[in-house]
Amino acid sequence: MTDWRHRAACKTTDPELFFPVSEVGPSTCQITEAKTFCNGGSEQLPCPVRTDCLEWAMAHGADAGVWGGLTEDERRSLRRSRARRSKQAGEVRAS
Questions:
Q1: Please, which residues bridge with residue 70 across strands?
Q2: Most buried residue among 6, 15, 20, 64 by CB atoms closer than 10 A?
Q3: How far is residue 18's CA from residue 9's CA, in Å, rounded to a whole number?
Q4: % of the chain at pLDDT higher than 90
């Protein structure tokens, strides 16, 4: 187990919370609850390893679940955005 996982706000939470069946309908409540561990709630600070968690999921192609406060669709969008920025940066360097 990677060191950052030992410091996660969710370390004693049932992992099933972070793997909803879908991103719509009744699952939205589950996603909101999972994201509360990552992003903090009204009385809770954001998870101290949220960024590490997200970057691990991005690097390892974690397709399912909530990681670092982002859903599957949100991570796909972030991946596309990063790819566009990387391509644009490459084009600027090449010119």
A1: 67
A2: 20
A3: 12
A4: 69
